[in-house]
Design goal:
Pfam families: Bactofilin. The protein is α/β, with parallel strands linked by helices. The protein is about 15% helix and about 50% strand. Strands 1, 2, 3, 4, 5, 6, 7 and 8 form an eight-stranded parallel β-sheet that branches. The protein is globular and about 40 Å long. Mean pLDDT is about 80; it is low at about 125-150.
């Protein structure tokens, strides 16, 4: 009966060693990759790239821990940890970064940025949707408010 009380957030999705996944992975719970992912990894939770794991593409997640290889863009809302065996080549945008001795990183890094503030693809799309919504609201309101008329 205890298993019935588990939530989606308690799950860990696995891409096992020897597995190659091509495409987009979207998860509302944690993801652990011991295999190879080519494409986009969007995780509303923690992403763990194991020492034998490899990602070629984009990682967008709340928290990320990398012990394997990543080539591409990494957007982290809270904390990115590069373990001592990590090899990262690409762009990093994160709020906080922890780098263990021995980790290798080549590329650009921007810290102190959350996903909602960053130019991450999903954030940018969200911003564009909000802009369109705002423009539609103004178009649907033919009478300007008093403040707008004064401006």
């Amino acid at each position: 009966m205890a298993n019935q009380t588990r939530t989606v957030q308690d799950q860990v999705n696995l891409v096992g060693e020897g597995t190659v996944f091509e495409g987009t992975v979207r998860a509302k719970s944690d993801v652990r990759a011991s295999g190879r992912i080519v494409g986009t990894l969007e995780v509303d939770g923690k992403t763990m790239i194991a020492e034998e794991g490899e990602v070629e593409g984009e990682i967008i997640a709340t928290n990320v821990e990398i012990a394997g290889q990543v080539q591409g863009e990494i957007y982290v809302d809270e904390r990115l940890v590069l373990k001592s065996t990590a090899q990262v080549d690409g762009t990093i945008e994160t709020d906080r970064l922890v780098v263990e001795e021995g980790a290798e990183f080549t590329g650009e890094c921007e810290m102190g940025t959350t996903l909602s503030e960053s130019k991450a693809p999903s954030g940018e799309a969200s911003w564009e949707r909000d802009s369109v919504r705002s423009e539609r609201s103004e178009a649907e309101d033919p009478e300007p408010s008093g403040e707008a008329a004064e401006a």
